[in-house]
Amino acid sequence: MGISPDSVNRQRRFDEKHTLGFPLLSDPGGRVARLFGVKRFGLIPPVRSTFVIGQDRRVIRAIRSETDIAVHTDEALAALRELAT
């Protein structure tokens, strides 16, 4: 799933444009961002982060990079592969 501070309508339009195939959730007040430690002060967007969460609801891997977007996919897939073995 994806979570951002964008409105539900903006999330819907983004999904219609990109056909992501997973749910997008709106976090307009930044509550979830604060819980995951990615909320910044003021109007600055949250830190771009990816979290791999296990079935037991524990965070298995946290990936944070705002300059290398590919690292999010690479690291998340590596974590999922490790879980499968």
Please give a structural write-up.
- With 85 residues, this protein is of the alpha+beta class.
- It is built from 3 helices and 4 strands, in the order E-H-E-H-E-E-H.
- The protein has helices spanning 8-18, 31-35, 70-84; strands at residues 2-4, 24-26, 49-53, 59-64.
- The protein has a two-stranded parallel sheet. A two-stranded antiparallel sheet has the order 3-4.
- Strand 3 and strand 4 form a beta hairpin.
- It is globular, with a radius of gyration of 14 Å.
- The two termini are 23 Å apart.
Helix percent reads: 25-40%
Structural class: alpha+beta
Helix-strand string: EHEHEEH
* Number of alpha- plus pi-helical segments: 3
Ends: how far apart?
23 Å
Rg over CA atoms, rounded to whole Å, is 14 Å
Shape: globular
Total strand count, please?
Answer: 4
Largest sheet: 2 strands, parallel
Beta-strand content bin: 15-25%
Residue-averaged pLDDT: 90
Low-confidence stretches: none
Please state how the strands of the largest beta sheet are arranged side by side: 1-2
Descriptive tags:
two-stranded parallel ribbon; two-stranded antiparallel sheet; 85 residues; 36% helix
Give a concise summary:
The chain is of the alpha+beta class. It has helices at 8-18, 31-35, 70-84; strands at residues 2-4, 24-26, 49-53, 59-64.
List the helices and strands and how they pair.
Layout: E1 2-4, H1 8-18, E2 24-26, H2 31-35, E3 49-53, E4 59-64, H3 70-84
